[in-house]
Amino acid sequence: MHAKKLDKLATAVLYTIAGIIVAILASLILYILVRGLPHISWSFLTGKSSSYQAGGGIGIQLYNSFFLLVITLIISVPLSMGAGVFLAEYAKKGPVTNFIRTCIEILSSLPSVVVGLFGYLIFVVQFEYGFSIISGALALTVFNLPQMTRNVEDSLKHVHHTQREAGLALGISRWETVVHVVIPEALPGIVTGVVLASGRIFGEAAALIYTAGQSAPALDWSNWNILSVTSPISIFRQAETLAVHIWKVNSEGTIPDATIVSAGSAAVLLIFILIFNFGARKLGSYLHKKLTAA
């Protein structure tokens, strides 16, 4: 009886702690949405930001956030896939593999501001890319690569060994087994990890302040020259993202309606991050059911 009472007490304490955490998180989300949603409109989502006058929008910053996200994923997904496949399928236990895993652990624990300063010294100054989308994308790749690599590795390791044995038994090579058997089986977990990383990239600010810049020049939608600083597809132009815009509005406060712009921008950012997080789980479940049915 005494053990049962202790078990019930411990269970009640755990449920209470979990409830408090959920309540805090829900209250923060509701607070941001309640403050920001009334200020969101089509003109706010598509309009240009203003430096000194009221009534500015976040159109360019929102576009920059998505464009930077795409460029970052183009760079980081192949790298994380290669590293994850190597660690899960080919790496043998030894000092080299242990050193690689230690480096991944160290990189994953670095604060984003440190990664931003590293990106500034290497990509902005040494590589002479300047404050640009490519500098921000490379810095975010350094920031997210450890997490994405571990996600790919874990997803591949969760594939049962009999799947690999079946592929090898059919006479196909080890590489073909990985590409045609193991990776498709691990795809739901890999896709879920990529989408979750996308939400992290979309909401990042500290690393981009020192790499992508703090200004959002007007874009010429008739100019598709990738080297032009006014082209919407240029990776060599400055690109203030939505998260950086929120920080800048709150830190400088040079516009009369800074509070309104900040609240609306924060609500938009939160909504997209929630979409990424909930969408990742739904997409992962959908792919798992589809592959299982097939």
TrEMBL record:
Extent of the signal sequence: none
SUPFAM superfamilies noted in UniProt: MetI-like (SSF161098)
The ABC transmembrane type-1 domain, residue ranges: 62-279
Subcellular location: Cell membrane
UniProt-listed InterPro entries: MetI-like, MetI-like_sf, Phosphate_PstA
Record's GO cellular component terms: plasma membrane
Single Gene Ontology BP annotation: phosphate ion transmembrane transport
Alphabetical keyword list: Cell membrane, Membrane, Transmembrane, Transmembrane helix, Transport
Mode of membrane association: Multi-pass membrane protein
Residues passing through the membrane, by range: 12-34, 66-87, 99-123, 258-280
Family: Belongs to the binding-protein-dependent transport system permease family. CysTW subfamily.
Name of the molecule in the record: Phosphate transport system permease protein PstA
Organism: Streptococcus oralis subsp. tigurinus
